Amino acid sequence: MSSSSNSRLIIGMGFLGRPLAARWIEAGDRVFGTTRKRERVGELRSLGVEPVLWDVLQPIEERLPQVETVVFCVGFDRSQDRTIDEVYVDGLRRTLKCLPQPKRFLYVSSTGVYGDNQGEWVDETTPTNPSDRSAQACFDAEELVRDYGSSKGVDAVVLRMAGIYGPERMIGNRWLERGEVIPGSPDGLVNLIHVEDAARSVDAAARATTLSDLYVVSDGHPVTRGEMYEALADRLGYSPPRFDPEATKARGRGNRRVANTRMRKELGVVLAYPTFRDSLTDLPQSLRDPFES
């Protein structure tokens, strides 16, 4: 496949990949996108994306294209018989080995690598402390990306995302819909980034002439879980949320406040949704929780 001065490859055409592709296509870029499923090829073509059949853990079906910019934003599908290490670490390693060398490689990671910071602010200079398997897998993948960049002379950039949400996916809304008790304390902090702003940040990192090798991506306005669920329940007409602070498998145990100063200053990102509440008017009445187990 031939290269283009504004050619992009999105590995993982999911929740973040779709709005990112739309942004690049609107700008006139040539966009390739991977999918594991043949039945999605037509859907990608209808979006203006050139589909590439690619499974990060299976034998090669197609060659990956030679492009200027690659974004790796593969999600973890809990319904598949795969571990998170196989997808995030082994899948990334295999992809890097098969990938024609781009100018820039962007890896979408998670702010979960910071662990619990006791409610303190974290940024790109804060030491990491991954406290669960998912966070450790993200950290291990980041190390692979850094090694790849230094050994190949590629601009390798890690984008640590806060919780990505949007009109079709809202964190934990199923608990509210079902009237169930929400595991965890209402005082735990939640750090978020709207999916359109997440795509805007990736785009900015792809187009920047100079940039750092690490950016934290969040709206910079953490809220407590109680505040988030109360606002969501009020918007959707559900009963007020109830919490179980003693739940052992509770989400939101990584208590931290995620700053976005470098993202705003170096990449010039202006957020369309600077706070969680700014997005509530866009919510449909039917939502899907991306983190529902």
From TrEMBL:
GO cellular component labels: cytoplasm
A Pfam family: Epimerase
Gene Ontology MF term list: aldehyde dehydrogenase (NAD+) activity
Superkingdom: Bacteria
Domain NAD-dependent epimerase/dehydratase, chain residue ranges per copy: 10-208
PANTHER family listed in its UniProt record: NAD(P)-BINDING DOMAIN-CONTAINING PROTEIN-RELATED, PROTEIN YEEZ
Protein name: NAD dependent epimerase/dehydratase family protein
